[in-house]
């Protein structure tokens, strides 16, 4: 089926993909290795192999606490942001929209500005409103930060939606709500899920905005940030590896959903 | 700017064993108790060894937030006008800024019985007083020494000028910290008042630092970052963030040692301070009192390798006897100017 | 839909969150950029000196331009590498396609700080790369070539941000209807012409979005250059940061942040303009 030039392009791109993936995964593997063996003077001491770090990690209350805070923040922020993204994208594409550019700028700004600015601006305004900093403020900060990504993906998808689909639905007598539920939403599903996954990764790792909004609560990246000065323990490598494994499973679930959602023949 | 310095305070990293122990011990943040003390501090200043007895004695909960830098700490305090925290620990050079912004309140020494334990050299520090009122209680101190590879230098370098020697190009690192870098260059240039420089002196400092920049492998900003860079790249010299880096380097198999050169080294002194927004001032006083217990001073030195302010013997036992050879941090004439000069050095 | 009241109400509803949570705080910031400092207190005023300082001082302006150039390079690298990867992944079918996509996205789940640390220890003088190269006899002795220079900054940022480039490109490629490809082939177009006249234009909005993401992430990242760039790793974000820290000149920092904001706005405007022109 494929002709020769196409096959060559495929092979080249495949080699490139493999190489880049290897490079992308090198830090991951190295962390994973450091979590189970000791490394001295650049040499790996295989005889020190132990899973001890994966156990001792859980008796470290500050790490466990930070991890659970991070999970709460990420889940809430992503849920809120995904919902907002769909609503705002629908609104933006609605014929009666007013001042769409303005709203979009507001959505994109937190993502475009250096995080210090977003963090400080939220800190300054929340302190003026007398809101005390804690998980709530971090959630707000993360929501506005990840909203841009979720919105962008949903909107791109929505814009590519054939008008005819919606029109056909109306012609067949479907209500606006039915059209949304059975036509628009399924069409958007893959973008929403992709957006949520992307948002989750951003939120999980977001440090610089959180620094200013955290008050006396610690998220995982903040803990890592504070530890960076002091030195990472092998426990941290264990933790990071574990987080990666969990996300792997999560992402695999998402991907299998994606595939079903997109099972239109190609 | 003591960002660096600040970082140094995390000097608590005495090798990973200690690190793990302290993290494990760091109390989980428990909320919603009747009495709560909110502490904003450096790693190593609120250890279970004294936090637990304090909790038992007062029945209060303690929530501890660790900070990564002086700047971050100030931003947090400034952002909430102090309302987010009850007690804070920072060094002498920051006091002016906090006092000017009304972020901290004077301490009533009669409520802190253990203040009598403070050893004489830390009893009267001008930087922490204003209008006869004392705003801080000295708690921990240390220096920013020259760290060298003792294999390459059989005798300790006795002058900072070694860090301008092209022979060691790309084998040295220095702190990325505006104030500390400028103070150090001023000391090397022999200026009598490193915290109060004239424009002409600033120009000389700038040239001196640009001259050094070409010889440095990189600047570093974190305690462990410095240790890691030094060990990973087999470096010879480093403008250090603090004494515990020596121990950390030895833990990595580097034959490291420190020197307080003849031009002096920068010294920092961290003090406990009560925030202007403290909810329960008595509880804050009690906390400071606990920290001034001689036993705490002893632990601070023996376990964390910080200099302490209450147990002179413990200081001696870890070799911290050079308090008189340090140029103690003061509030400089103009932080902004220093940052601008440092930015020019880095952008050059 | 034509009546004004519901439109305004809906607008208020849709706009209140973005406006209240984003524009209001940023507005506070812009106002701050016209204030000035007196005795470490922020004094309200209308002070253009902050902006004048920026343009008068080559330290700030030069660093700013240097940062833009750096981000452009990072974006170029990410696009050059990311596009073929997205294309390759898109051309797989079934499970393999989503498995590969997953592989490209997963590294994002790993902590950014930890990644930086690992990269640095791999590329350092004593690091894995040097040990391998010396071990293979390619290098005579460990080299500092891989770390603490601009190449290290570019490489590290590319590693960090390439997934953000691949994903949007893939998403638009995926939207291309299969029958369009078939039609092109049936009409006798070569694979290259199909790519040139069908695939590439249709995927352009995603390509632009990918470039935008990378550029903007690189623009906001002042930690990476500092960590791996050695003494050359000084970027504009760092300059802004320094004003909020030690220098404690928030108004000046806010003014520089405002300049960064204006730049970012300009870029997004250009990006969305060119993307909208490409829509079919």
Give the topology.
The complex is a heterotrimer of chains A (about 270), B (about 350) and C (about 280).
Chain A: H1 4-36, E1 38-40, E2 43-45, H2 52-56, H3 61-93, H4 100-112, H5 115-128, H6 135-159, H7 163-171, H8 176-205, H9 208-213, H10 220-228, H11 234-261
Antiparallel strand pairs in A: 1-2
Chain B: H1 3-9, H2 15-25, E1 36-41, H3 48-58, E2 61-66, H4 70-80, E3 87-91, H5 95-100, E4 104-105, E5 129-130, E6 133-134, E7 136-144, E8 146-149, E9 172-175, H6 178-188, H7 199-213, E10 218-220, H8 223-232, E11 237-239, H9 244-251, E12 256-259, E13 265-275, H10 281-291, H11 294-304, E14 307-308, H12 312-317, E15 326-328, H13 335-347
Parallel strand pairs in B: 1-2, 1-3, 9-10, 9-11, 13-15
Antiparallel strand pairs in B: 3-13, 4-13, 5-6, 7-13, 7-14, 8-11, 8-12
Helix pairs in contact in B: 6-7, 6-13, 7-13, 8-9
Chain C: H1 4-32, E1 36-38, E2 41-43, H2 49-56, H3 58-91, H4 94-105, H5 112-123, H6 128-135, H7 150-175, H8 178-186, H9 191-220, H10 223-228, H11 236-244, H12 250-277
Antiparallel strand pairs in C: 1-2
Helix pairs in contact in C: 2-12, 3-4, 3-7, 3-9, 7-9, 8-9, 9-12, 11-12
At the fourth level of CATH, the homologous superfamily of the largest domain in chain A is MetI-like
Q: Biggest chain pair contact, residues each?
A: A-C, 96 and 91 residues
Query: How would you describe the shape of chain A?
Result: globular
Instruction: Calculate the mean pLDDT score of chain C and round it.
Output: 83
**Would you report the number of β strands of chain C?**
2
- As a percent range, the share of helical residues of chain C equals over 70%
Portion in beta strands of chain A: under 5%
**Chain-averaged pLDDT of chain A:** 80
Q: What's the N-to-C terminus distance of chain C?
A: 26 Å
Query: What integer value in Å does the Rg of chain A equal?
Result: 23 Å
State the CATH topology of the largest domain in chain A: MetI-like fold
Going by CATH, what is the homologous superfamily of the domain at 62-113 and 141-277 in chain C? Answer: MetI-like
Note the main sheet of chain A. Answer: 2 strands, antiparallel
CATH architectural designation of the largest domain in chain A: Orthogonal Bundle
Taking pLDDT < 50 over at least 5 consecutive residues as the criterion, the unreliable ranges of chain A are 260-266
* CATH topological fold name of the domain at 62-113 and 141-277 in chain C: MetI-like fold
């Amino acid at each position: 089926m494929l002709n020769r030039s196409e096959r060559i392009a495929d092979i080249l791109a495949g080699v490139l993909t493999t190489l880049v993936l290897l490079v992308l995964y090198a830090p991951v593997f190295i962390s994973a290795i450091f979590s189970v063996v000791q490394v001295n003077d650049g040499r790996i001491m295989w005889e020190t192999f132990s899973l001890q770090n994966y156990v001792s990690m859980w008796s470290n209350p500050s790490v466990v606490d930070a991890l659970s805070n991070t999970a709460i923040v990420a889940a809430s922020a992503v849920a809120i942001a995904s919902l907002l993204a769909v609503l705002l994208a629908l609104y933006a594409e609605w014929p009666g929209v007013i001042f769409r550019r303005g709203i979009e700028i507001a959505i994109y700004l937190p993502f475009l500005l250096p995080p210090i600015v977003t963090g400080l601006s939220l800190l300054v305004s929340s302190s003026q409103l007398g809101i005390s900093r804690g998980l709530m403020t971090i959630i707000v900060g993360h929501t506005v930060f990840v909203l841009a990504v979720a919105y962008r993906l949903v909107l791109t998808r929505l814009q590519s939606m054939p008008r005819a689909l919606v029109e056909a639905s109306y012609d067949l007598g479907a209500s606006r709500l039915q059209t949304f539920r059975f036509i628009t939403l399924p069409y958007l599903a893959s973008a929403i899920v992709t957006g949520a996954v992307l948002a989750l990764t951003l939120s999980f790792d977001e440090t610089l905005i959180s620094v200013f909004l955290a008050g006396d609560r610690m998220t995982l990246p903040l803990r890592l940030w504070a530890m960076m000065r002091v030195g990472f323990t092998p426990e941290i490598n264990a933790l990071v590896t574990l987080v990666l494994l969990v996300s792997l499973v999560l992402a695999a679930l998402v991907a299998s959903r994606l595939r079903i959602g997109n099972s239109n023949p190609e | 700017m003591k960002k660096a310095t600040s970082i140094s305070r995390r000097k608590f990293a005495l090798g990973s064993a200690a690190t793990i122990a302290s993290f494990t011990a760091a109390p989980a943040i428990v909320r919603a108790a009747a009495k709560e003390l909110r502490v904003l501090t450096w790693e190593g200043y609120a250890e279970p060894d004294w936090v637990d007895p304090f909790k038992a004695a007062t029945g209060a909960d303690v929530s501890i937030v660790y900070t990564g830098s002086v700047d971050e700490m100030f931003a947090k305090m400034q952002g909430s006008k102090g309302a987010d925290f009850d007690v804070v620990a920072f060094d002498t050079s920051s006091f002016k800024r906090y006092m000017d912004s009304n972020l901290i309140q004077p301490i009533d020494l009669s409520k802190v019985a253990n203040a009598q334990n403070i050893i004489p050299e830390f009893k009267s520090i001008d930087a922490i007083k204003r209008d006869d009122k004392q705003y801080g209680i000295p708690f921990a101190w240390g220096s920013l020494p020259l760290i060298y590879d003792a294999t390459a230098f059989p005798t300790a370098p006795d002058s900072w000028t070694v860090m301008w020697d092209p022979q060691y190009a790309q084998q040295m690192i220095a702190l990325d910290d505006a104030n500390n870098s400028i103070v150090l260059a001023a000391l090397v240039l022999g200026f009598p008042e490193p915290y109060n420089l004239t424009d002409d002196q600033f120009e000389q400092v700038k040239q001196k630092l640009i001259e050094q920049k070409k010889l440095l492998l990189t600047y570093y900003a974190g305690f462990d970052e410095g240790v890691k860079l030094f060990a990973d790249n087999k470096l010879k010299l480093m403008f250090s963030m603090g004494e515990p880096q020596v121990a950390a380097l030895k833990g990595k198999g580097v034959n490291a040692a420190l020197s307080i050169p003849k031009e002096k080294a920068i010294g920092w002194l961290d003090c406990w301070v009560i925030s202007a927004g403290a909810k329960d001032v008595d509880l804050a006083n009690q906390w400071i009192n606990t920290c001034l217990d001689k036993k705490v001073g002893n632990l601070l030195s023996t376990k964390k390798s910080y200099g302490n302010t209450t147990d002179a013997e413990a200081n001696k036992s870890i070799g911290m006897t050079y308090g008189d050879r340090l140029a103690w941090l003061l509030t400089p004439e103009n932080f902004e100017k220093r940052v601008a000069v440092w930015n020019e050095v880095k952008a050059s | 839909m034509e009546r004004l009241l519901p439109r305004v109400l809906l607008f208020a509803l849709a706009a209140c969150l973005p406006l209240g949570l984003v524009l209001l705080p940023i507005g506070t910031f812009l106002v701050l950029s016209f204030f000035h400092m007196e005795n470490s207190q922020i004094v309200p005023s209308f002070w253009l000196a902050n902006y004048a300082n920026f343009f008068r001082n080559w330290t700030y302006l030069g660093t700013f331009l240097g940062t833009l150039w750096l981000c452009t390079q990072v974006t170029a690298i990410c696009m050059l590498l990311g596009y073929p990867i997205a294309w390759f992944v898109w051309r797989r079918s079934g499970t393999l396609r989503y498995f590969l996509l997953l592989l490209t996205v997963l590294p994002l789940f790993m902590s950014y700080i930890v990644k930086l640390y690992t990269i640095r220890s791999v590329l350092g003088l004593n690091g894995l790369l040097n040990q391998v190269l010396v071990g293979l006899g390619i290098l005579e002795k460990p080299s500092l070539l891989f770390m603490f220079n601009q190449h290290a900054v570019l490489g590290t940022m590319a590693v960090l941000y390439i997934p953000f480039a691949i994903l949007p490109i893939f998403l638009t490629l995926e939207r291309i209807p299969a029958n369009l490809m078939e039609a092109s082939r049936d009409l006798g177009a070569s694979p290259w012409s199909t790519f040139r006249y069908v695939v590439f234009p249709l995927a352009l909005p995603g390509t632009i979005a990918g470039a935008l993401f990378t550029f903007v992430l690189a623009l906001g990242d002042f930690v990476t250059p500092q960590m791996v760039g050695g003494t050359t790793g000084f970027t504009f974000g760092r300059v802004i940061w320094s004003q909020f820290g030690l220098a404690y000149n928030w108004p000046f920092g806010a003014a520089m942040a405002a300049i960064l904001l204006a730049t970012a706005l300009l870029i997004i405007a250009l990006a969305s303009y060119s993307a909208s022109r490409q829509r079919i």
